[in-house]
Amino acid sequence: MHGAGPVSGITRATQSLVPLGVCILCIILSAMPYGKLWGLSISPALGLAAVFYWTVNRPDIFPVWVLFAVGLFRDFLLGDPLGLWTAVYLVIYALALSQRMLFVGSAAHSPWMGFALFAALGGFLSWTMSSLYFGAFMPAGQMAFQMGLTALVYPLIRRIFAMIDKQLRLQPVF
Amino acid sequence: MRYSGSRFDRGGFSVPGGRVTLSFFFLLLVAILLAFVHRADPSLFERWRTKVVDVSAPVLETVSWPVKAVRNLLTDLGEFWEVYEENERLRKQIEDLKVWQSAALHYERQIAQYEKLMKVQPLPGIEYVTARLIADGGSPFKHTFILNAGAKQGVENGQGVVHGLDLIGRIVNVGQHSARVLRVTDINSRIPVMVEPSRQRAIMAGDNTGQPKLEFVESELDIRAGNRVVTSGDGGLLPPGLPIGEVVQQEAGKFRVKPNSNHNRFGAVRVVRYSFPVDVDTSVGGERDLPLGGEPAPGTDSSGAEDGAPVAGPGTEAPDETESEAAPEEGNTPAAAPVRAAENRAPAPGPAAAEQPAETAAEEAEPEEAEPEEAEPEEAEPEEAEPEEAEPEEAGEEESDTGAAADAGGADRQGGAAADGE
Which of chain B's residues have a Cβ under 8 Å away from the Cβ of A51? Predict the structure, then answer.
C-alpha cells in the first residue's frame, strides 16, 4: 500500500502527527487533577501507555524524534527534571521496538502483560534516575501506584488507540 | 495488526539499521546531557518551561473542567451518605468557634490598642489573587501544580499559595496567564517556619513524602506532637503566621509536619501577594520605643539582619542601621519579650482555654479598653508589662490564646501582624 515517492514521505510525516498529538493529549490528561485515593495521587502515566502502543504497533509513523519531542514536552509541562522522562521514553522505545513481535498480533492479554512489564521497568528507571538526580532515595510508593494504575487502565486505553490506528489505516495512501 | 511495506515489519531493534540506531543513541545522549545541564543550572530552561506551560494553559483549563466536574460529582455523592453526621459535627464546631470568635474579637481590639500605644509599625496588608488549579503535577517525583493566573494577574515568583488559610506551596514559575506552584511537600521546598506555642524557628523541608521534615530546630525539647506550625516570615517572601500544619513526631528528636490542607479538595486556591516592608515609615515609632524592653528577648533572632534584609519594627529608623545591630523583628519587639516568655510556658490553646478569656472579656468590659486611648502611653505601658511579674500563669494563658485567636480571625485580614499577636 505504501508508495515509495516523495508524496508517500509527506503522507507518512503527516501521519506521524497523529501519534504525536495522541501522546501530547495523553500527557495533558495525565496532568489533570484527579484527586487522591488512599493518600496517593491518581495520575496514570498515560504518556507512557501511548508511547508503548505506538512504538509496538506503528513504529513506521512513530519515529524516534517524535518520541523525543513527546518526552521533552512531558518534562517541560509536568515540571520534572528536563531530560529525565525523555531518556526513560527512549529506553522503553528501544526495548519495546526490539520485542514488538511478541506483542503484535498475539493474544489480547499478551500486550497487556507486556505493557505491565514495561511500565514496571519505566517506573524503576525513572525512580533510579530521579534518585540520582536529587541525590536522595525517592519514595517509591507513589511511582508503584502510578504504574499499577496505568497497567490497569491500559486495556481500555489500548482500545481507543486501536480505533484511531484503524482510522489511520483506512486512509488512502498516495 | 501487520502492515506491509514497512521496514519495521521484521521487528527487532537492529532491523531499522544504523540510521535509527544512531539517532536513538544521539537523542538519548542529548536527553541525559539535558538532565545534567538542568541539574547544574535549572534557570537555563525555565523560560522555555514557562512558554510551554503558558501555551498549554488554555488546553489544560478546558480539559480540566469535565475532569473536575466528574470528580466533584463523585466526591459529593460519596459525601451525601455522611451528610447527617457532617451536619452534627459542623453544628458542634460552630458552637466551639463562637467561643473562639468572641475571644478573637476581644483580643483584636486589645491588640490594636497595644499596637497604637507602642506605635508599632504595621505590616503591609496582604492581597490575594484567586486562581484555579488547572493541572496537577502528575509526577511522583515533582510535587507541583499549575494555576490559571500569571503575571497579568499580578502573580510573582516566590509568593505563597494558600488553600483556605493554610499554606500549600509557593510560586516557582510564572507565565503570562499561568503559574507553577511548588508544594510544601516537594523535595526542593524549604519554608522558614515557627512552631507554636514555643515559637521555635525551624526550616520545613519537603522530601516528596506527604509530611515534610522539620530541620534546624533550635531546641527539640520544646516541640511536641500536635504543635501548630506556621510560617515565620523569615526572609520576607511569606508573611508570618500563615498556618501550615501540625507537628508529628517520627522518632526521638525527629519531627515532621502534617499539612492541614487536604489536597484532594483543591479547586480554587489563593496566591498571597505580600511585599516585605522595605520602606519603613520612620515618622511612626521612633527611638522612644527602644528602651521599653531593652534588648530583644532571649531566643529571638533578627532574621532580617541575617539575610541582609531590612527589618521593620519599632525603633527602626533606616534599613541600613538594622543590619549592624540585632534589630527587633516584627514579633521580636522588645516589648514583646515578656509576651514571648509567657507564651513559652503556656499550654497549647484549646476551646476550653478560650472560654475563660471570653468570659473575662465580658467582665473587663469597656472601661479598661477605653482607658488606654485617653491615657498617657507612659502610664499604660507598665500595664502591659505587668502581667508576667504579677501573675505569670494567667498572663501566659491569656497571651497564648491571643496568638491563636488572632491567627484564626486575623490572618486573612493582615496576616502576620495579627497572627503574631503583636
Answer: none
Inspect the interface and report whether the beta carbons of A169 and B209 lie closer than 8 Å. Answer: no
Whether the CB-CB separation of B287 and B317 falls below 8 Å is answered with: yes
Select, from the ranges A7-11, B21-25, B298-302, the one with the highest average predicted confidence (pLDDT): B21-25
B177 DSSP 8-state letter: S
Asked if A94 and B263 come within 8 Å (Cβ–Cβ), the reply is: no
Between the CA of residue A140 and those of A77, A149, B248, B393, what are the distances in Å?
22, 14, 22, 48
Residues 48-87, chain A: which have Cβ within 8 Å of B? 57, 59-60, 63-65, 68, 71, 73, 76-84, 86-87
Over residues B136-150, the pLDDT tens digits come to 866 778 888 899 888
| Maximum Cα interatomic distance, chain A, rounded to a whole number of Å | 55
The whole-angstrom separation of Cα B157 and Cα B280 is 23
Chain A residues in contact with B7 by the CB 8 A cut-off are 60
Residue listed under C-alpha cell 512513530:
A62
CA B91 to chain CA centroid, nearest Å: 28
What confidence tier does B192 reach under pLDDT thresholds 50, 70, 90?
A: very high
Residue whose C-alpha cell is 469597656: B366
Q: Give residue B370's pLDDT band: very low, low, confident or very high (50, 70, 90).
A: very low
Strand partners, B255: B249
User: Which of A33-42, A144-153, B198-207, B318-327 is the least confident region?
Assistant: B318-327
Minimum distance, in Å, between the CA of residue A157 and any CA atom of chain B? 17
Q: Which residue of B has its CA nearest to A37?
A: B264
Query: Cβ–Cβ of B12/A98 closer than 8 Å?
Result: yes
Q: How far is Cα A74 from Cα A30, in angstroms, rounded to an integer?
A: 10
pLDDT digits 0-9 by tens, B278-307: 655 555 444 433 333 333 333 333 333 333
b/e per residue B286-325 (b: at least 16 CB within 10 A): eeebbebbeebbebbebbbbeeebbbbbbbbeebeebbee
Based on the number of CB atoms within 10 Å of its own CB, is B37 exposed (0-12), middle (13-18) or buried (19 or more)?
middle
10 Å CB burial of residue B251 (0-12, 13-18, 19+) is exposed
Q: Which three cell numbers stand for residue B101?
A: 470568635
Q: Specify the length of chain B in residues.
A: 422
Q: What is the pTM of this model?
A: 0.66
Q: 102-161 in A: which are within 8 Å (CB) of B? A: 104-105, 126-127, 129-130, 133-134, 136, 138-139, 142-143, 146
Q: Å from A145 to nearest chain B CA? A: 9
B213 — contact with chain A (CB < 8 Å)?
A: no
Q: Which residues pair with B195 in a beta bridge?
A: B200, B229
Cα distances from B168 to residues B186, B206, B239, B416, in angstroms, run 11, 12, 14, 17
Q: How confident is the model at residue A10 (pLDDT cuts 50, 70, 90)?
A: low
pLDDT band at A108 (very low <50, low <70, confident <90, very high): low
Contacts of B267 (CB under 8 A, 6+ apart): B68, B72, B132, B133
Residues of chain B found within 8 Å of residue A143, distances taken between Cβ atoms: 140-141
CB contact A94 to B (< 8 Å)? yes
Chain A contacts in chain B segment 97-156 (CB below 8 A): 133-142, 144-146
